[in-house]
Amino acid sequence: MTLQIGSTAPDFEAQTTEGPINFHAWAADSWVVLFSHPKDFTPVCTTELGYMAAIKPEFDRRGVKIIGLSVDPASRHEPWARDIEDTQGTAPNYPIIGDGDYNVSKLYGMLPAEVSGDPAERTPADNQTVRNVFVVGPDKKVKLILVYPMTTGRNFDEVIRVIDSLQLTAGHRVATPVNWRHGDEVIIAGSVSDDEAREIYPDGWESPRPYIRIVPQPNGN
After folding, report:
1. Considering only CA atoms, which of 51, 49, 10 is closest in space to residue 131?
2. Residue 2 has pLDDT above 90, yes or no
3. How far, CA to CA in Å, does 66 sit from each of 50, 84, 93, 164, 219?
4. Which of 22, 41, 53, 140 is the most buried (most CB within 10 A)?
5. How would residue 1 be classed by pLDDT, with cut points 50, 70 and 90?
6. Which of 45, 72, 99, 164 is catalytic?
C-alpha cells in the first residue's frame, strides 16, 4: 500500500508500551504524529525518542498526540526506554508501538508485504525504510509524510513548524510561504478570488505579482 498526502491513515490494533490500542480510537479527534524506527537500541533513533519526549509539551499545546513505532516487540522497548532516559535525559512519555509482526510497517508502506519471520533476526539495515514521520489530522487523513535515512537524525522542530502551518491553513484560506513561522505573514490561497479576498481582508494586501497576495497571519492562531 502506498500512502500519499490526503490518504486515510490506516487503522490498526497494536501492543504499545502503554498497553493495547486501536489507532483511530486512540487518536480520537486529535492531530497525531506517528514516527517510526527500524529497530530498538539504534543510536540515531535513541536521540530522536529522547528529544521528542523533551519537547512533548509543545505538541500537547497544539493538541497533537505523539506515538512511536519500532520493529521489535513492545516488551523490548522497555529496557530501551531506560537507555534513552540515561543517555538523553528524558524517557519516552508517549506510547511506542511494538511492530514485531510488521503489520503497521506494511500498512503504512514502509516494508513490503512479503516480509516475515522473527524480527530479532533482522538488522536495522533490513528495516531501514522504517524511518517515516506521518502527521495525521483529526479527519484521519495523512497531512505530511517525511522519510529520513538511518544516518540522519530527524528535525522535530520542523515537524512542529509544519503542524503550525497545517493547523492555520485548515482554519483559514491561506498558505504559508518558504521558511514561514508562526506569526509571519501568509499568502491568500489561490482558491480565493479577489472579490472574496476583499471581503475577508478589507484593508487589502501586498501584491508583488497578481498571483501573490500577502497578508498578516489571521488572528486566533
Report:
1. 49
2. no
3. 13, 17, 9, 15, 27
4. 53
5. low
6. 45
Separation between Cα atoms, residue 192 and residue 215, nearest integer Å:
13
Q: Which residues pair with 212 in a beta bridge?
A: 209
CB atoms within 10 A of CB 83: 15
Instruction: Determine the Cα–Cα distance for residues 206 and 208; give it in Å rounded to an integer.
Output: 7
The position carrying cell 512542529 is 160
- The residues, ordered by sequence, that sit 6+ positions from 70 with a Cβ below 8 Å of its Cβ are 36, 37, 38, 39, 40, 45, 76, 77, 80, 96, 97, 98, 99, 130
pTM (whole model) above 0.85:
yes
Other CB atoms closer than 10 Å to residue 42's CB: what's the count? 18
Is 72 annotated as catalytic? Answer: no
* Torsion from C-alpha of 208, 212, 218, 221, nearest 10 degrees: -120
Does the active-site annotation cover 194? no
Length of the chain equals 221
Whole-number percent of the chain with pLDDT over 70: 99
DSSP sequence for 115-158: --S-GGGS-GGGGTT--EEEEE-TTSBEEEEEE--TTS---HHH
